Amino acid sequence: MRSYRSLLRTPEFTPFLLSFTVSAAAQTIGSLALGTLVFRATGSPLLTALSMFGPHLAMLAGAALLLSAADRLAPRAILTGLSLAFAAATAVLALPGLPVWAVFVVVLLQGLVASLGGGVRGGLLNEILTKDGYVLGRSVYNMLWGLTQVTGFATGGALLVLLSPRTCLLLAAGLYAASALVTRLGLTARPPRSSGRPSVAATWRTNAVLWSSRSRRLTYLGLWVPNGLVVGGDSLYVSYAPDSAGTLYACGALGMFAGDLAVGRLIPPAWRPRLATPLRLLLAVPYLFFVLRPGVAVSAVAAMVASVGFAASLVLQERLMSLTPDDLTGQALGLHTTGMAAMQGVGAAVAGTVAQLTSPATAITVMAAGSVAVTLTLAALTRNEDFRATATRPATAD
Asked: Are 148 and 21 in contact (CB under 8 A)?
């Protein structure tokens, strides 16, 4: 098993992580500031959840229209451009007097542009690291995301006590600009992974190829749906505990960090495939206790324990990569990230609607129960598919 030290000695890995970390800090601080701004303006759990996670819905359109660019454009140029676009859009969100409908126009445009980011970063990581280092490298990537969320949400919560949400949005815009600078100066100019021009037709053709395999379909659904339902419940933290939402998000991020550390570094590779279902169940079950409307301390512990289950994505991404040709890895990972983000947006919309009709605690419980049901169904279907594949595999001589 490779070590973290060997990964950090890999050329470009450190600047790759640094640019991502700065961008992630901008996203967490900006998201909490925007959710707070919308909640103060409207008092609506639904609109608050959509302001933070609704942009993910637009990523579904990006997956259908733009994903072919993930393998057909130079990665350094596109990542630099994405960070600059986010800096500009976040600065617009900070404009005084911007009406709520205009806020949603901007964040949906952000989501459309962001649909390329996951695929480009995932494909580039696959190039920077060798095959045996991908899961460990991805775990470092995810752990940094978790640590950045802990720091970002905690910092964002503290900043919102001292500063206005619009000032925090301007700070996030500056961080996006810094990420663009690190990307431009720290990464090598690499050629596209695949030939041809990006187009809607090329996106559809490759998506059809990726979706044609039943094993890949089940893997994608496992990556998207249980995660999306739980994150939909998470989107209600601001309305569930308005003064402590940053604490709940930070504790959840800490649990995610612990899960990625365990799966990426401590669990032997031979054991990882067996953990997909248990981890997805862990992701949802603690939230069932929100039916009791626990206080902030108990809620924070539940969020931290549950978020260990996000490490299921490492296991399922490894399976996805084993089922995907090398020249399609960028779009395959892009389809994963945009599909997952879109399901998170759907989850936020559903959870916000249920909370509007009942309460945030009830909605969080309902979303968790749905996640458990989907995980158990997908586990049964995957077992049947694996059994069928084993039964039809030709026997080999000893």
From this structure: yes
